[in-house]
Amino acid sequence: MQSIQQLTSRTVVLPVNDVDTDQIIPARFLTTTSRDGLGENLFHDWRYKEDGRLNEDFPLNSPQAKGCRVLVAGRNFGCGSSREHAPWALLDFGIKAVISTDIADIFRSNSLKNGLLPVLVSTDVHQHLLKNPGETVRIDLSDTTLTLEDGSSISFPIDGFARYCLIEGIDQLGYLQKHSHEIQRFEETRPWKP
Predict the structure, then answer these.
(1) 0.70 exceeded by the pTM?
(2) Other beta carbons less than 10 A from residue 192's beta carbon
(3) Residues 6+ apart with CB under 8 A from 108
(4) Domains present along the chain, CATH in parentheses
(5) Strand runs (DSSP E) across the chain, as ranges?
(6) 105-153: pLDDT as tens digits
(7) Residues in Cβ contact with 87 at an 8 Å cutoff, skipping those fewer than 6 apart
(8) Structure letter (DSSP) for residue 102
(9) Do the bridges between strand 145-147 and strand 153-155 make them parallel or antiparallel, or are there none, so unpaired?
(10) How far is CA 168 from the centre of its chain?
């Protein structure tokens, strides 16, 4: 997992509400346990036409979206099943953060555990970002702020442990491994045995 301390990027906007995990990565592409290559099938049924060609009208296929690492999504993004492949596909495609007013709980949890940053904002900020695709934003995890192109800055909520892991570039297992010496010392010195 890569460390996320600050992220500056232009935004790509997907103004669709209730995007579920099957739309993010259709079930027929879940035959792998590897994260590699999932980005190719991100939003597959929207990004590609029936004949396999790219759908030029889909926002992530536009030339302006190239290199954008922040997705501004509609409300209730990531609803549906709990598939971890959804944040994996976004990350493999190059998306590092998703901004919305509402991100589904399980998707948000899976995202935080896998290095994708979900950023919750007010309706006003969300509407501004939806109306201004390509705006450059800066996300700073050290002070949990989102700074817009005009210089205005807002705070966003994030669980403290998840924030720590994202900054350190580790997952929950990595956190435990980082403290293996203390765990070993405790195991050796505790007065009771299981």
Answers:
(1) yes
(2) 4
(3) 78, 118
(4) 6-189 (3.20.19.10)
(5) 6-14, 70-73, 97-100, 117-120, 136-140, 145-147, 153-155
(6) 999 999 999 999 999 999 999 999 999 999 999 999 999 999 999 999 9
(7) 107, 110, 111, 114, 115, 116
(8) -
(9) antiparallel
(10) 16
